[in-house]
Batch of 2 targets.
Target 1
Amino acid sequence: MRKLLMASMIATAASIVAAAALTSDYPKPGSVDRATGLEAWARIYEVASHPRCSNCHVGESGIPMWSGPSYGETRPHGMKIVAGESRIGNETLPCGTCHVKSDRPQTIPHAAPRANGDWQLAPAGAGWFGRSSNWICEQLRDPARNGGMDYLKLANHAGHDVILLWAWSPGPGREPAPYSNAEHRMDIHTWGAAGQPCPPE
Ligand code: HEC
Ligand code: HEC
């Protein structure tokens, strides 16, 4: 028993040290060259354009998408769902009717995804679905188009937004977003420290 307790205390201490090391390892602004920054961006784009993110980041249409291996053919969300100005379906059928707020993990394939937050579409200005790497990069580095965020705020958002975190643990059947959330945040820091370079169109 005592042994077990010791082991778990050591494990906890080790993980605190690891987390601290990771935070202090974030590169300082100006310390990363452009080529490395662009490599980090390429991974950020892989995440942003993955169905777990882009199905919800659809732009002006307000119509969420069903795409990715679990859906077969790419198509608009079934049942004529439209998010409307509210982005949450208030004008028609609220998203929360099916996408309930819950901290319990997803267990049933093809059930409506749920997260511990209000399920809703991303702002129209962040419509990434089908967009190029250059387009998404330009949108994300422009505070006037991304809700006023510099790269540090973007990295922080990526660690805290509950719907976004769902994309890495979407439950059975759905392919999670690539890399891990920690790697994604590190990539935002690396890209930011290089001055947020964007690839050509
Ligand atoms: C269920 C829908 C949904 C999914 C899935 C989703 N998002 Fe979002 N996203 C939102 C909403 C809603 C907002 C606005 C509210 C906020 O900022 O928290 C948002 C805002 C953002 C922003 C803020 C910047 C901007 O341009 O407005 C970023 C960056 C972002 N999401 C990244 C992601 C990434 C990366 C993924 C996948 C790992 C993802 N999101 C998955 C709904 C979603
Ligand atoms: C009548 C029930 C219902 C309503 C209302 C509804 N959805 Fe869905 N939604 C579903 C179901 C069921 C799925 C999963 C289908 C599957 O996996 O085959 C889904 C899947 C999704 C997905 C794809 C997630 C992924 O990447 O796998 C998004 C995005 C989405 N819904 C957004 C919305 C938004 C935004 C609203 C409100 C404007 C909304 N939904 C309203 C039932 C609903």
Target 2
Amino acid sequence: MEKMTLAMPPEKLDKDSLVYKVNPDLSGIDWAYVCELFAKVNWRTRLAEEIEQAFRKSSWTLFVYKQEQLIAFGRTIDDGRYYAMLGDIVVDPDFQGNGLGKVLVNKLNSLLENYHFVTLTAAPGKGDFYKSLGWKKQTTAYIWPQGPKQLRQHTEEGEV
Ligand SMILES: CC(C)(COP(=O)(O)OP(=O)(O)OC[C@H]1O[C@@H](n2cnc3c(N)ncnc32)[C@H](O)[C@@H]1OP(=O)(O)O)[C@@H](O)C(=O)NCCC(=O)NCCS
């Protein structure tokens, strides 16, 4: 018999029970689990030691927990003063649609006071998510594509 997998609808969350951790001690983060969440949203493989070192370079990191379970995270990638971008905005698919993405983006953005440039690169198909939060499409951004997939997904040349 053919095996059928049914996609479960995302879980409704009791928002008051969530714990938001801004700049927690990064030694206490389960980086292997962070890598699992990256895989769960189909992003390119991250290695636990490397992603930890990358997060350590961020001025701001934000982790969201449901009890002990990490369900969302995001960070800034920045120079501490002038330029910042939001990155690694990830919500566990089981908990998407509960407003967590919005909280991650708005909270991180609110921490970037007096920066001269605050930007982000939307994952393909996620532009409307950022637009709904008030972000504007930047007409002056350029990318050096790291391969044909990026050329296809992130540039006008690739949009045929
Ligand atoms: C994109 C992502 C962060 C959104 O998180 P989420 O918790 O599901 O989003 P929210 O529930 O906070 O949605 C906030 C608003 O954006 C809208 N929205 C969410 N995803 C959307 C999408 N893909 N396209 C358009 N609008 C979207 C919601 O309808 C909601 O609108 P409302 O406030 O009018 O109700 C989440 O889908 C995710 O982690 N995706 C995988 C990783 C990724 O692509 N990250 C971001 C790209 S850089």
